[in-house]
Structure formats: structure tokens, C-alpha cells
Specification:
By secondary structure, this protein is of the alpha/beta class. The chain has eleven helices and six strands. The protein is globular.
Length: 261
């Protein structure tokens, strides 16, 4: 545990040295990992800002989580929106004529990182920004494949000249929760994650069909515009060539049966 803390603090110190007089940028969601990273950053420097990228296809509850967590810690949050770049998800669908894929996640680039860059440039000029992200390799098997064990610094492939920093990359869930408890860091329960196993965007090229089934149970019409695009393109929008329209029909049918039980 002590080693993991020391490692994270060393990474943050290195990022601050490299950023010079430009504040570090903490990509903040209000979740446990973000709060862990926030606590560690405060041990190194006060010269940082918290940032949240609104995608336009994120759960409204996530925005509330960010705002409430910011109040808990008396934080100012900076925001970016897709309109800061080239428009929202369906504006970009018109441009590309295809859903984002695992291999080409233009949604992250155009809805998050490029709008964020424009806001940061307006605030601090044309500079290299060191953006700290609360990514942990042990959170999923996919992340273990995507992130190398010692890949704490990485060029931001989507935004020219910026650097992504991952100080808690090697932390396990058990280590994170132990640190939060030991340091008495207040945590707001993330009801989205508890219920749906995701808490960011309600549509993502990485989500499996079961995630959509859980969400559609509560929000049967949430994906109607995605379904319109499936029909328009004659292409499924979910990995493994699954169709949202079929999942919606399936869940509506199950709900109808339940009413007669």
C-alpha cells in the first residue's frame, strides 16, 4: 500500500514539473477513483483544476454526481460540451455515417477530448496540458489489455501535444477502498453503477447487450434515436452485431408478460 501511494505521488510530482506554470488537469467524475486521485494530487500541489467533459449522451444523474461531489470538497469544476467543438453525437453521425466502433471511438475524441482542449486553450492559451485520469488496469480485463503496467504517461492520441497521466494505474479495487476508508474520504454512492454497472454515457461502443437490457428496463425510449440510425444505416449499434431495436422489443415483451403474472 505504501509503495502504491509513493508511486502515485512520484508520478504526480513528475507531471507537475513537466507542466510548469500550467495547472494540472484532473478529469473528475465524482466517483471513488476520482476521489482517490483528488486526495493524492492535493498532497503534491494546489496548482490543478478539475474538469468534466459533458458528452450529451451521459446520464443526467452523472452530472448531478459530479456537482454534488464538487460541493462536498469545495471544488470548482470546469466543463466542456460537444458544442465547443463540432456538435453533438448525432451531428457527428451525420458527418461520419457510422456508429463509433471499438477500433475508432470518434465519440471520445469529438465529444470529450477536443471540446476540452478548446476550453483549456481559451483559459490558458496554446500549451501542453497534463491531464490526470483515474484509470486503473485492474478494473476490467479490457483495461489490462489497453494499458501497460508502467504506462503512466502517454501522448494524447486524439489531441495534439497533450499528455495523459495515470497515477493510480496499478491500484486494485481493494487498495483503493482501503485508502479511502483509512483517510476518511466521504463517498457518495454511485446509484448508476450499482444498478447498471456503468455510470458514464448511456451508449458506448464497448457496452455489451446486457447493459442495454438493464437500462431499457427503466428507460424504454432512451435509445429511439439510435434505433432510427440503425434502421437508416441497416447496421447494428452494439458489439457482437446486436441490434438495439431487438433488445428494446425483447424487454418490452418481457415487461408485458410480467404484467400478467
Amino acid at each position: 500500500m505504501d509503495y502504491k501511494v509513493k508511486e502515485a505521488l512520484t508520478i504526480i510530482k513528475k507531471a507537475k514539473r513537466k507542466s510548469g506554470n500550467i495547472p494540472l488537469v484532473l478529469n473528475f467524475s465524482g466517483g471513488r477513483d476520482s476521489l482517490l486521485l483528488l486526495n493524492l494530487i492535493k498532497k503534491v500541489t494546489d496548482d490543478f483544476i478539475c474538469f468534466f467533459c459533458v458528452t450529451g449522451i451521459d446520464f443526467p444523474e452523472l452530472n448531478d454526481q459530479v456537482k454534488n461531489s464538487a460541493k462536498d470538497f469545495d471544488l470548482d469544476i470546469y466543463y466542456s460540451y460537444p458544442s465547443d467543438h463540432k456538435g453533438g453525437f448525432f451531428d457527428r453521425m451525420e458527418k461520419f455515417g457510422n456508429f463509433p466502433l471499438i477500433q475508432t471511438t470518434w465519440c471520445s475524441r469529438d465529444l470529450k477530448w477536443r471540446p476540452q482542449k478548446k476550453v483549456l486553450t481559451k483559459l490558458f492559451g496554446k500549451n501542453t496540458f497534463y491531464k490526470l485520469n483515474a484509470v486503473r488496469r485492474y478494473e476490467s480485463s479490457r483495461r489490462r489489455k489497453l494499458y501497460k503496467p508502467t504506462g503512466f504517461f502517454r501522448e494524447d492520441y486524439e489531441v495534439y501535444n497533450d499528455i495523459m497521466v495515470f497515477p493510480i494505474l496499478s491500484w486494485t479495487t481493494k487498495e483503493r477502498d482501503h485508502y479511502l476508508a483509512k483517510n476518511n474520504i466521504p463517498i457518495r454512492t454511485n446509484l448508476l453503477y450499482k444498478k447498471y454497472k456503468v455510470s458514464g454515457c448511456y451508449w458506448c461502443p464497448f457496452y455489451q447487450a446486457n447493459i442495454y437490457r438493464r437500462i431499457i428496463c427503466d428507460f424504454p425510449n432512451l435509445y429511439d434515436k439510435f434505433i432510427e440510425w440503425e434502421i437508416k444505416l441497416n447496421k447494428p449499434s452494439i458489439v457482437s452485431k446486436k441490434w438495439l431495436r431487438n433488445i428494446k422489443d425483447e424487454m418490452v415483451y418481457i415487461k408485458t408478460l410480467d404484467q400478467f403474472v
